[in-house]
Amino acid sequence: MTEVRPTAAASASLWERDEEVAAVARAVDSLCADRSSSGGLLVFRGEAGLGKTALLAETRRIAEAHGCQVWSARGGETLRSVPFNVVRQLLQPALLSMLPEEAREYLGDWYDIAGPALGIADPGDRQADPQGVCDGLVAAVRRLSRRDWPLVLLIDDAHWADQETLHWLAALAERRDEMSVLVVVTRRPGEVSGTSARLLDTVAAAADGPATTLSALTPDATAGLTRATLGEHADAAFCREVWAVTAGNPYDTVELLAKVQDSELEPVEARAGELRELNRSARGGGLVARLEELGIDATRFAWAAAILGTGISIDLVAKLATLKPDVARRCAELLRTARILTAPDPATGRTAEGDLEFVHPLIATAVYNSIPDALCTAMHGIAARIVADEGHGAAAAARHLLEVHPDDDEELVGQLREAAREHLAVGAPDAARRCLERALKEPPRPETHPHVLYELAEATFLTAPARTISQLRAALGMPGLDGDKRVDAVFRLSQALLHNDQLEEAVRTVEAEAARLQPGPARMRLQAVHFMWEGIHAGEATSPDRSRRLADLARTCTGRDNSERALLILRGFDALMHGENAEEVVELCDRALVNGRLAPGLGWTDTEWGIELLLMLANAYAFTDRLDRAETLYNEALRAYETAGWSGGHLALAHAYVGLGHRRRGRLKEAEESLRESLRLAERVGRRLPLYWSATCNLVDTLLARGHVEEAWEVAERYGFAPPYPSTIVLPDPRSVRGRLLLAVGRTKDGVNELEAAEKAAAARGHHNPVLVPWAGDLARALATEDPARAARLAVDVRRRPSVSDGHRHRGGPALRRRPGDRPACGPPRRPGRHLPGVLALPVRARGGPHRVRHRRPLGHRPRPRPRPGGLLRRGRAGGTGAGGAEGGRRSRVAQAPSNCSVTAASRLPTRGSYAASWARAGLVPS
To answer: Where are stretches of biased composition, namely Basic residues (predicted)?
Structure first.
């Protein structure tokens, strides 16, 4: 604050705001400098009445003087429950000004995702993904900013914005460098807590410099403003009293001086004592008294306007206040004259919403709080009916229904359930939750009650698994939830238990419900779900004979419906985990498809079965080296989720498994890119979840395969890749990958302990496939010097245990591809194209003793292993987490490992390099 007087063009409320106005001018200049300029974000904080709205008005003036497009919106205290209210105010006018075809062209693939949230497209039948909708709204701004450059967005009273808008604003702030748009936000300090406060803090943290906090006017500035308003003859004592009465609040000062003018009060010391009485009528009780002086009709009109909050048209207010049209028009004029209501500024683009708005949010709050409680509740009920009759839909009426007292009204329950469905369809589950929780208070009739609980669980499933569990248990404990709906509820409950890391309880829940059903499709579906949860449980098997029972059940399945197809997939995945015949695994999976494709109802976005089952199918193909089929499924999942706008956990998993496909193909750089994107998305969902482990484990494994040991360790440390491990299976096994990481950084003892723990866990589950749980080769490498006998036994066991990992090599599969700059996981970097000598000593158990060398083989010679009866035919090496394509094929030869990898040549064994190098050359274990 460098000057007392404002610039000539500034309004009275901009006294001592020169620094703030200068910051706005610089930001506008930067925006207009070039179309490729990055976006800007300014945040101004201040208590009520300190001139935030006036500062935004000055921002509009500056921006329009530079030829900018300016769109604005304002949060409302009574409108925070309306999802997307503020972002609709901001973007909807521009989109509605286009032809529908033009709007669809500008939004592209995001039209069907973001369009319903913006109110320009009808919502579909499915529940929209909130994160996808948020991303779509960010994309809408990015595309519109290219059309309407230079674009300035003004958001007033952001502390009163709905939570959906704040999610969008936080995402926009973090990605503002991607678009050329200036965003200016004002808010009060405090006011909100919880998620809304966190989102506002995220916006402030992304701003261009710290948020500017506005301060009250100084006595000198108040004196200057007083004389500029009343005349230079206003004496010093009067001016000091104006400052003392208003505490330097610009809004109060302007309002007080307007009343001084209206009352023709002489601005002299002798009349200064009357200022306090005048000031009391500016807000609170004084404003209410002034409103009552205008008459009962004007008071009712103001109350009705405050109830509506937005879209205040004279006709709508007249219906709510039960006033005749001519009386309503007269009241509107009285309230405009009294500076309580005003016509919306045409420059804001919101004139289509209504004919009126409150002059200031403080006035709107004071009027709303003055309505007697019983009358306020009754008026909200009437407003809900009027809004519905006007054709605005149940969601628009829901804001008012939430304020109505419970009265055992089944019709109101139905309206709230319909509103919840509309909210879910546009990606606002929190708004749906509020509607359904209010419906439960009515309460619903007994036959309806469990259905409302089930719908409430659907609304909270993505955000509050623990709450979902209690709701579904309550619903299942009531009569009325029968047939397919009950089966769906049991499945959803088991999913919520899984996401809440209560997998054993999920297994028991499904098992108990399946036991009470008669044989048929419903029972078979729950049996399949039971086997699915048991199959991904990382602890000891719940049922010792699970695999036998699953095999017996799957043997009767022909794939005639989705329950049978699910059982076939589960049987194939179980066979894979136990190391059974690869061809049989593929045959089981193929029988679960319809003409080589996923059956209707088993798509990636279908909710009847969930993503887990389809990932089992894709992974079964991936780890039996049918990589073409696996990658088709992975990429299909990615496209499905992107098209549907699902950008939360489902999309994170899709990227993770696309990365796994690249890893097994040997495309390590592409694998790393996909896995980093997966981890970025997983961060938004939450840490320590199974999907988070999938992204982190595979990224660490890929970095090790590229030889980037330090980077792999940094990722593990940053993202908590350490015990305790999740209760669900992660592929590849995280204990094995972490053990390999510990060996690579020189922590041999810790690595051995981790690998031995992996061995015990795998044995408890009967998981004998060394591609999926690749502990043995790394453990043998670590024990080569300290316990060579055990190391040799492990090596022979790995050699004897067939591995599917390199089966594709004999079918023309690709080899491992190293990029320039990639280094072996252990060993010094070397130039591409250089090879080690072509002969190595391979230690194998011979008749003469455990450590004798049977013979020497030329480099590249790979004997064809004999298939084990009942076992999975695996050609090539065992172990390795991306095993198949990732480290199979014609590997780059690895030099002798340095000591920090704890791999040295066993002096008693006639080998020219380390065990790791020898086995890697022979295709047995990863380097």
So the answer is: 808-820, 848-867
Class of domain 286-370: mainly alpha
For 34-110, where are the alpha helices, taking DSSP H only?
Answer: 52-65, 85-96, 100-107
Burial group, residue 448, by CB count within 10 angstroms (0-12, 13-18, 19+)? middle
Hey, where are the domains in the chain? 17-213, 219-283, 286-370, 518-646
Structure-token match 């279908």, residue found: 606
Which residues face 212 on adjacent strands? 44
What pLDDT does 355 receive? 79
Stretch among 9-18, 522-531, 687-696 having the lowest mean pLDDT: 9-18
Upstream peptide bond of 828 is cis (omega within 30 degrees of 0) = no
Q: For domain 17-213, give the CATH superfamily.
A: P-loop containing nucleotide triphosphate hydrolases (3.40.50.300)
Quick check: 524 pLDDT over 90? Answer: no
Which residue, 674, 663, 670, is CA-closest to 704? 663
Residue among 527, 525, 622, 607 at smallest CA distance from 572: 622
**To which residue do tokens 């319909």 refer?**
418
Contact 356, 342 (CB under 8 A): yes
**Which run of H or of E encompasses 580?**
none
**Sequence-ordered list of residues with C-beta below 8 angstroms from that of 575, at least 6 positions apart, any chain:** 581, 584, 585, 588
**pLDDT tens-digit series, residues 583-611:** 999 999 999 999 889 998 899 988 788 88
Tally Cβ neighbours within 10 Å of residue 82: 21
At a CB cut-off of 8 Å and minimum separation 6, what does 860 contact? Answer: 838, 890
DSSP state of 728: B
Residue 152 corresponds to which tokens in the numbers above? Answer: 């300035």
Judging by beta carbons within 10 Å of its beta carbon (0-12, 13-18, 19+), is residue 588 exposed, middle or buried? buried
Q: Are 128 and 424 in contact (CB under 8 A)?
A: yes
Q: How far is CA 298 from CA 2, 263, 321, 410, in A?
A: 44, 22, 10, 35
How far apart are the C-alpha atoms of 64 and 59, rounded to whole Å?
8
